[in-house]
Amino acid sequence: MFRSKSTSETGPDVVLIGAGIMSATLGMLLKELQPELTIAIYERLDVAAAESSDAWNNAGTGHSAFCELNYTPQKPDGSVDIKKAVNIAEQFEVSRQFWSYLVEKNIISNPQEFIQSIPHMSFVWGEENVDYLRKRYKALQQCHLFDTMVYSEDQQQLREWMPLVMQHRDPSQKVAATYTEMGTDVNFGALTRQLFRYLQKLDGVSMHFNHDVRDLKKSDNGGWIVKVKNRDTREKNVLNARFVFIGAGGGSLPLLEKSGIPEGKGFGGFPVSGQWLRCNNPEIIEKHQAKVYGKASVGAPPMSVPHLDTRMIDGKKALLFGPYAGFSTKFLKNGSYLDLPLSIKANNIYPMVSAGLDNIPLTKYLIAQVRQKPEDRLEALREYFPDAEMKDWELEMAGQRVQVIKKDPEHGGILEFGTEVVSAADGSIAALLGASPGASTAVSIMLNLMKRCFKEDVDTEAWQQKLKQMIPSYGQSLLSNPELTAKLRKWTTEVLELQQMETA
Fold first, then answer.
1. N or C: which end of the chain has fewer CB within 10 A?
2. Where are the alpha helices (DSSP H) in 141-207?
3. Average pLDDT in the chain
4. Burial category of 95 from C-beta neighbours within 10 Å (exposed 0-12, middle 13-18, buried 19 and up)
């Protein structure tokens, strides 16, 4: 059992590096499962959720695979593979259950601060893309997780769903869309800060902002020696921890490398930056009421799938379009231009070079994106909003993402567009690498992490009972149980007070 000991003897039981949604989720799960655990959280910035979890840095779609076409690739035979979409949809339902549990326990006091109901739509044009969307819809209809989705090629219907997108569009253009009211908009920054505010009130939890974790070294007792520097006072501190979670977004890879664990060898990172066009015209903002996702350009990374996106940020309705991808050698928005070169080691240079050679179209795409002029961005926007004028939009910096590069027997190295948990064999340390759909599936990711790193505890009757209390579907497959899915969706919708955003 992972028994807590006096902090004066050993330091905290758990160190969480990074104050984002991943650390907040893991910290909350652990304190609910074993309240006596001591936890120390270290964040290099002066506030929580200022990097990947921040509302302006995160798509906030509440990824449930309803509208994201990159989760349903078309296979060489023309059929559509829905496996990833189904997996993501099920994982998002798990997140909703955990958040609902926290609301019922009054840990989250006002769910409307971080989650709203908003239609999710996929929109395409052109014969080939319409054919793909039709096949995608038919494939998804085989799974009850998507039974609220409807499909249409009728322009009049599409005008009702998304008037801005269809306004003054060529009536002869072949178009299609799917629509579901089950979609959500999630402000992961607001959710993260709510969770940390609660955690800070608990015994045995300490939170340290403006602190840089500089080094990690395995200790003789099986734990970790963590070296920390206060960025304000320049004071250095050394502490011992029994378990370390590296949830520092783009900053996770350098710390994983410093840990020296064999499981971390061969991993590299490819940074991708982004920008939004943010609408500054209230009349236009009020005319759009959906998250409308299209198809990514050839060679584009999945995080760059274009979308015209209704958001609720800090209580105010917003409208964004993008993101436009770019390239920076920084691993964090507030990082250093030396992040990428310093991450290159003898054990990962071959996978990184191999992955680079296999992804030349991506490199060309990013170069073209970096060289874009305002007129180019406006042209891309007009594919989704034909009447768009540049005076109604301003450029906003989005977040920085680091895509995972890992060793591959066939190719030498492959570029992964997802999340990857890397943990030591003894379960004493784990790191989360990668990007989308991370935040939306944070609960499932952390549950899987605990199965690796807290295996003996997870298997106990006490933890099993508590996990089923926090996540009613725990240990069951929503995919094979439509009745349970419907019951839990009804419960989470009521508890989270999911209501459509108000329109003028």
1. C
2. 155-161, 163-166, 188-200
3. 89
4. buried
CA distance linking residue 473 with residue 447, whole number of Å: 13
Query: CB–CB of 279/464 below 8 Å?
Result: no
Residue 98's Cβ-side half-sphere holds a number of Cα atoms within 13 Å equal to: 27
- Domain assignment of residue 7, yes or no: no
Tell me if the bond preceding 374 is cis, omega within 30° of 0: no
In a domain, 179, yes or no: yes
Residue 416's beta-bridge partner residues? 404
Contact of 235 with 214, CB cutoff 8 Å: no
Q: What angle do CA 327, 329, 330 make, to 5 degrees?
A: 105
DSSP assigned state of 145: G
Residue 205, number of CB atoms within 10 A of its CB: 20
| Domain interval for residue 293 | 14-492
Half-sphere exposure of 35 (CA within 13 A, CB side): 4
The predicted-structure confidence for 417-447, as pLDDT tens digits, reads as follows 678 899 999 999 999 998 777 889 999 999 9
DSSP-derived pairing of the beta strands 243-246 and 14-17? parallel
Burial letters for 433-457: b for 16+ Cβ neighbours within 10 Å, e otherwise? bbbbbbbbbbbbbbbebbeebbeeb
Cis before 386 (ω within 30)? no
C-beta of residue 226 within 8 angstroms of C-beta of residue 309: no
What pLDDT score was predicted for residue 482? 97
Q: How confident is the model at residue 249, as a pLDDT?
A: 86
The answer, as to whether pTM is greater than 0.85, is yes
Q: What letter represents residue 402's amino acid? A: V
Read off the CATH number of the domain in which 110 is found: 3.50.50.60
Give burial (CB, 10 Å; 0-12/13-18/19+) of 136.
buried
Helices (H) and strands (E) in the chain, counts: 17, 21
Which amino acid makes up residue 105? Answer: K
The span from the CA of 469 to the CA of 479, in Å, is 20
Q: Does residue 166 have a pLDDT over 60?
A: yes
| pLDDT beyond 50 at 4 | no
* 18 is a domain residue: yes
Whose CA is closest to 377, among 322, 300, 295, 303? Answer: 322
What does R_g of the chain's alpha carbons equal in angstroms?
A: 23
In a domain, 500, yes or no: no
pLDDT in tens, 280-327: 999 999 999 999 999 876 555 555 578 999 999 888 999 999 887 777
d(Cα 302, Cα 490) in Å, to the nearest integer? 31
- Around Cβ 187, how many Cβ atoms within 10 Å? 24
Number of structural domains (the chain) is: 1
**Alpha-carbon torsion (486, 489, 495, 500), positive or negative:** negative
